[in-house]
Each structure stands twice: as structure tokens, then as C-alpha cells.
Specification:
homodimer, alpha+beta, about 35% helix, globular, DNA-binding, Fur_C (chains A, B)
Chain lengths: ~170, ~170
DNA sequence: CCACAGACTTGACCGATTCAAGAAAATGCG
DNA sequence: CGCATTTTCTTGAATCGGTCAAGTCTGTGG
């Protein structure tokens, strides 16, 4: 009901969200916003385009990028860039959570802040630095890949991933 | 003495470092290794190529990338990728320090771990996740840009930078 | 229902990085 | 020392994620 079929309900809600963010309401925007909301997050522009097309029928990749930027600027969507991966988009929840990235399969998982609203937000820096935000990325192996790994910490797909630039620490 | 002229001393040391890392000793490798060591770090491949060329005279960009990867794999160089910036390279010091990135000018500054060797290294994750590393990036304004900013937190160059993809938080 | 700003489509373009093929150079060995 | 083997470097093309630009289409306000 929320994915492809009668999306009436969600359409209306998406329209409302756009409107109250002061944005024009268009089919592509509703579709992308719904795609981001429906997905578990962490999808890239092209995947979201695919989902959105199930609603709009046709949607250019460029439009997808435009919409995603507009939604990000409006504070409805959060953009996350992870080294070696295309940008991912998720619903902005204003909780400044972080991400765990599996070095083997590339999957991403949300990680809540360990302490309060901003862990690690106290860098050892001179007072005249204006620190606005801290982004934390955890690297490791997800349960599935960990089980499949011959040696703990070194999976078969690891080498492949490394070559795709998953920073940091290539550890070969 | 360490930059362009008689680089004998450093050349020899670079050769030694390569050798003890089990790598073949070549002029391009020594040159790039010296370039990384001499710089304050945080230079991208093309800049390092420029520095290295002052020693080798000629060095392809492709070779620079090859060398940097080899050095990274060998644990002599640390690669850092920051959203919206090309990859930066610095001498591997095995201290897992983090980075502060200025949203206005894009400059990068090292930040020591606030607590022990691995702050934020305790993600709220199920026990079957194998967390190997935590990368923390602080975003904000460096002293210079902060002073130049008309409104605190929003510099004149900010918009420009945002459009170049400096994640996270576009805050327009 | 019209006009106009803002949004979509298409297609060229770009920066960072990698792939591929051949030439050059480094180490091992006789 | 001189060659063979293997790795590395050079050159040039290609890929990938993403942006720019020009023209057409469509919300929205009047």
C-alpha cells in the first residue's frame, strides 16, 4: 500500500510535506519523497529513481538529482556520502545518527549516537574553530559477512571492495 | 634540502622504508613517498604528483595513483576520503586521528582522538557486528573563514562549497 | 484561464579514478 | 656483469557519479 499500488494516502502526505516545506508540489517530487520514505534508507540516486518510476512512470536521472537536492535543502531528506560509494539518501530525522558500513558487502546500517545527541562532538581544537557537526562512520563486517569470512576480519569479497575504494584502512 | 635540491638523505631513507616494507625501490615511489612525508599531509594525488615531479622530472598521474595505492597497501601511507573532495594522502602514523574540514575553504586539519585511542568506537550495535574502525569527520569553519563570515556559520564561499558536495548538512 | 517562475527532459560535459596494452626498469641468478 | 623474469611506468581510452545548459512543460497566483 505504500510501495507501488494505490499510493493515494502516501501521495497526499507527501504533497503535504512538500507544501509545508514551501516547495512546489510535483509528481516527481512526491514520487521521490515517497521512495525515500518507503525504503529503509541508504539508497542511491539511481535506485531511488527506479522506485520513483514505479509511481511516475518516467523520471530522468537528472530530475532525480534535482529533486534530491531540493529535498535535502528543504530539510526533508538527509544526504550521506561514504567513501567509495555513491551518495545515499534517507529521511531526515534530525537525530544525527551515524553509520556502520560493511567492508565486505557494502551494506549500511544506522547507528544511534552512543551518548546524547552528539558524541565525539568535542574535538581537541583551538577555541576559534567553529565545529558545527561530527560525522562518524564505523567500518567493519556485518554479521552475515563475518560468518562467511574465512579469517575473522578478512572476507573473500574484501579485496574486491577495497579496490572500489572503501576507505579507510585497506588492511591487506 | 628535503624538497627539491640535493635530496640524497631523504631519498636514501625513502628507499629504506620501501625496502623494509618489502616493496621494489623505484624513483617514482621514492619521490611520492618523499612528497607525502614532506607535505603537511592532506594533499590529493595530483598535488603530490606535482611535488614528486620536482624530483623525478616526469611522472604520470596514473603512476602516482599506482604508487599511492601500493604505499597505502603497504601501510606507509594513509588514505582519507572526504565527501566532495578528492582523496587525500598522509603519512601513516597509526594513531587513527580524525579530521576537521572547513566548509568554507575546504581546508583540513588533523584532530587527535579526544579519548584514548578510539573515541566513538563503541557503537550501539548487536554483538555480532565486527567493528574494526571508526572514522570521524568534523565539519565547521576554520578560524580564518569564521572571521571572514558575515553571519556566524554562513560564509560567502559556503554556497560555492556546498554545490561541490561537501557533506553533510548543506544548511542553506 | 493566462502568464511566468520554477521544474522536467535531453544531451553534452567534467573531475576523479581505473582499465588495458605496451615499453622500461628492478631484482634474481648464473 | 648481463640476461631473463616480473613488476612498474607511460599513454590513452573508458567508467562512474554527478553537474551544466538549453529548451519544453507545468504549478500556482492573479
Amino acid at each position: 500500500m505504500t510501495t507501488s499500488g494505490s499510493t493515494g494516502e502516501t501521495m497526499a502526505r507527501a504533497a503535504e510535506r512538500l507544501r509545508s516545506a514551501g516547495m512546489r508540489v510535483t509528481v516527481p517530487r512526491m514520487a521521490v519523497l515517497m521512495a525515500v520514505s518507503d525504503s529503509e534508507g541508504h539508497l542511491d540516486a539511481d535506485s531511488l529513481r527506479g522506485l520513483a518510476q514505479r509511481i511516475t512512470g518516467r523520471l530522468s536521472l537528472q530530475a532525480t538529482y534535482n529533486v534530491l537536492r531540493a529535498l535535502t535543502d528543504a530539510g526533508l531528506v538527509r544526504t550521506t556520502q561514504i567513501a567509495g560509494h555513491p551518495a545515499r539518501y534517507e529521511t531526515e530525522r534530525h537525530d544525527n545518527h551515524h553509520h556502520f558500513v560493511c567492508r565486505a558487502c557494502g551494506s549500511i546500517r544506522d547507528v544511534e549516537c552512543a551518548v546524547g545527541a552528539a558524541p565525539c562532538m568535542e574535538p581537541r581544537l583551538p577555541a576559534d574553530y567553529d565545529t558545527q557537526e561530527a560525522a562518524v562512520t564505523f567500518w567493519g563486517l556485518c554479521p552475515g559477512c563475518r560468518a562467511a569470512a574465512p579469517l575473522p576480519g578478512l572476507s573473500p569479497q574484501h579485496e574486491h571492495l577495497r579496490r572500489h575504494g572503501s576507505m579507510p584502512g585497506s588492511s591487506r
